[in-house]
Predict the 3D structure of the following.
Amino acid sequence: MYFIIVVGTAGSGKSTLTSALYYYLVNNQLDAVTVNLDPAVESLPYKPDIDAREIVNARDLMRRYGLGPNGALVRAVDILSYRVDELRDEIWSLKANYVIVDTPGQMEIFAFRESGPAMLDVLIGDTRSVTLFLIDSIYLVKPSNYLSALLLASSTYFRLKLPQILVYNKIDLLPEGFIDKLINYKEDPYTLADELAKETMNTPMLWGIDDIYTIVEKLQMYEIVPVSSKNLSGFNDLYAAIQRVVAGGEDYYTEEPSPRL
Ligand SMILES: Nc1nc2c(ncn2[C@@H]2O[C@H](COP(=O)(O)OP(=O)(O)OP(=O)(O)O)[C@@H](O)[C@H]2O)c(=O)[nH]1
Ligand SMILES: [Mg+2]
């Protein structure tokens, strides 16, 4: 059993990708299940096999305790983390090869608070797992957003301590040729450092261009896969990247037979 944890900022496309990846795997005769860990979500583009809302529903907490949406979500995830054993038992009883876990958009749950990483620790145990850190690629058009996305991804990486793949989502929305520019940032961080310096020219900077270069170079330690969850472009590459992390190969030969199929 492998866990694929889908994290990312609000609206980056986590639920859409969870659904698309589930159907991609199942259509390729692979055995997958989905888990919704977002207790506040109203509707989902897939029918989760396991749903945190059956344990705690953030919308009920808002009504019952007069909480705002963020407070209710944080409270709901805290409650979920006390009852995570129930979720774990349900997930493990499914005996699926791939467990795709969709998470709430409030990044601080994973990047700052204790509940997110603690909950994942219990769910996953020492099973081979990978985090997909989703970035809405349309925002990467601006160099400072690119740096910000890398910093967020790094916070999540250091907190979850799982191998991480950076997924540039929604590439169907990018201007022609832009994806090459993004990939080039990885190959040549100096271009990004240079563009960042230009963007911030009139702002007093704490870092010089060489510092930016070093930071960008260090932060780009992750594998990057551009995808569209709308037209499924990049999904073969995403599957190969996941396989390299969890199974050490990159094709169907490294798959294990499913006890369920
Ligand atoms: N064009 C395009 N739109 C996408 C893609 N992936 C997601 N979207 C759209 O982006 C919006 C947000 O998608 P969700 O999947 O709900 O994003 P999320 O990260 O789960 O959102 P939260 O759970 O609220 O944080 C929806 O309108 C999706 O249809 C994509 O690859 N291409
Ligand atoms: Mg969602």
About this structure: The chain has one domain: 2-177+222-254. The mean pLDDT is 89. Residues 95 and 259 are 7 Å apart (CA to CA). The first helix runs from residue 14 to 27.
